[in-house]
Amino acid sequence: MDVMDTTRRRTLPRGGLSLPCIGMGCAPLGGLYQPVCDAQARATLDGAWDAGVRFFDTAPFYGYTQSEHRLGAALRERPRNEFVISTKAGRLMRPDASVRPGDDGFAAPLPFRPHYDYTYDGVLRSHDDSLQRLGLERIDILFVHDIGKVTHGERDQQYWRQLTAGGGFRALEQLRASGQVKAVGLGVNECDVVLRAMAEFDLDCTLLAGRYTLLEQASLSPLLDACVERGNAIVVGGPFNSGVLAGNGKFNYADAPSAILERVARLDAVCREFGVPLQAAALQFPLAHPAVASCIPGGQDLAQLRQNLDWFATPLPDALWLALREADLIDARAPLPTGVAA
After folding, report:
1. What kind and span of H or E run contains 251?
2. Which of 171, 179, 229, 318 is the most exposed place for a label (fewest CB within 10 A)?
3. Crossing angle of helices 38-50/302-312, nearest 10°?
């Protein structure tokens, strides 16, 4: 059995930034699905720090700037060189009195409406705005948020041109070359756009949400193969696939279809045979792949955060992974976390 080490870091192939193997996704602190008050958010973030978490991911979109405000308030008095923070560009947040509870799934968003902008000026403005909301002098990783055909449909080419001909990638390169950020990449939940971006620009890392998990591994080839070859490290977001692997019935931010629920039940049954939580397997599985640098589950409160860390540190038997593969529940090409402590 292996025990996952929450303090161990992995160094990105490009640029030398090291990331803790487990971090914290801060979309829930923007009130995703359920309301989160300031006191609860602060207690969760302070508890995360006390538990050793040193990698935090946020975005202007989360809670319509609320997550950035809350994360910055909790971190700005901490030693700056002791933590890694990532945020995102691609949406500018403009004041809008028509914002209502429930918009984009956020229970109590602040009165700012997101507007897509992947241009040179838009990326630079987004970066500066985030610094001010966070109250920090620098951001370590800047991801381009939610670019791609699945997200934008018929407007995909319009926004892709903003990123390419419109200078969005050029802005990322400028921020990286000047040292204002240490790494740049995409923050997406679709695979094809990552390959598309890699043909245009050298990505240091990609936050890939929900596409390389215990539930699905279609990204293994060609994407993860190409990422290993090109040095584009993967940060796994959404390791519970929006929560279906943790028991909330959500998949891709919506109610899970019956086929997904049936597959989750099969995964759970194998884990139960070995007396281990399905959630522990879900958190530990992705890190066996050489492309993956970190895994960042979310947490709405301190209890949820501590539970995630406990699952991550749960020893899991090698036989579990082999049983999941033999049951055709893990792709035969997927590296298994056997024999090597992370």
Report:
1. strand 250-251
2. 179
3. 30
**Helix (H) or strand (E) segment spanning residue 93:** strand 91-95
pLDDT at 234: 98
Segments in the chain below pLDDT 50: 1-2, 340-342
**Catalytic residue chosen out of the listed positions 2, 64, 88, 117:** 88
Classify 88 as helix, strand or coil: strand
Catalytic residue among 2, 46, 50, 62: 62
Q: Is 88 annotated as catalytic?
A: yes
Question: From CA 171, how far away is CA 126, in angstroms rounded?
Answer: 11
Question: Is this prediction's pTM over 0.90?
Answer: yes
Concatenated DSSP letters of 329-341: -S-TTS----SS-
79: its two tokens: 């030693």
Q: Which two tokens stand for residue 297?
A: 């589950």
Q: Is the peptide bond before 315 cis (omega within 30 degrees of 0)?
A: no
Query: Quick one: tokens of 269?
Result: 């049954």
**How high is the pLDDT of residue 341?**
37
**Residues 323, 222, 334: CA angle, nearest 5 degrees:** 15
Residue type, 140: D
Instruction: For residue 149, indicate whether it is catalytic.
Output: no
Choose the catalytic residue: 2, 57, 117, 140: 57
Round to whole Å and give the CA distance between 56 and 156. 29
What is the token pair recorded at 60? Answer: 């202007």
With left for phi above 0 and alpha for psi between -120 and 50, is residue 304 left, alpha or beta? alpha
Q: Quick check: is 62 catalytic?
A: yes
